[in-house]
Write a structure and sequence with these properties.
single chain; 101 residues; alpha+beta; four-stranded antiparallel beta sheet; 3 helices; 4 strands; globular
């Protein structure tokens, strides 16, 4: 399956996340979105933040924020990474998320 098959979900997440961050009192300092797919077929959308504008990233990485993002995105898993820049990773598809046949 190609990452292109997840464009609709990626667009939804990309349009939704800035507003969610604003609701949480955070600035939506998003520099870009990157859609990719693993060899196992998992589609990920990376939401890359402009880390040079942040004094502290802890507010963006808190478990409360991650849980709120996941809930607002209809249960999609959301993780935060601060290695080589700041980003959210949203799992758009996975064998674990797909309905059984």
């Amino acid at each position: 399956m190609s990452a292109n098959s997840h464009l609709s979900a990626a667009r939804y997440v990309a349009q939704t996340i800035p507003g969610i961050l604003v609701q949480l009192g955070l600035k939506p300092l998003i520099s870009r979105f990157v859609l990719t797919e693993t060899e196992q077929g998992d589609a990920w959308l990376f939401v890359v933040l402009e880390d040079d504008h942040l004094l502290s990233y802890e507010d963006y990485a808190s478990s409360v924020v991650l849980g709120y993002l996941s809930t607002a995105l209809h249960g999609l898993p959301v993780v935060f990474s601060n290695n080589y820049g700041l980003r959210y990773a949203v799992l758009l598809s996975s064998a674990l998320l797909q309905e059984p046949n």
